[in-house]
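Record type: monomer structure entry
Structure origin: computed from sequence
Chain ID: A
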Amino acid sequence: MLLLRRHLIPLLRPVAPLHFLSTSAAPFSLEDYLIASCGLSPDQARKASKKALTQASREAGKPLRARSAAWD
């Protein structure tokens, strides 16, 4: 689970404004990423993405050092 968290954190950080100028057709889906890259089932991916997004929103206002300690 720790390895999964370390891979999710960079994906949940604020995106640079240039991202919005991108011409990509499909928006990023954390659930799809977890299914394709980590081999999770759709149900597992849904639960993990909800948990990750909840944790990321809680950690958003904390200093970086405090955030990284919370994930260990």
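Annotation 1: The mean pLDDT is 74.
Annotation 2: Residues 42-59 form the longest helix (18 residues).
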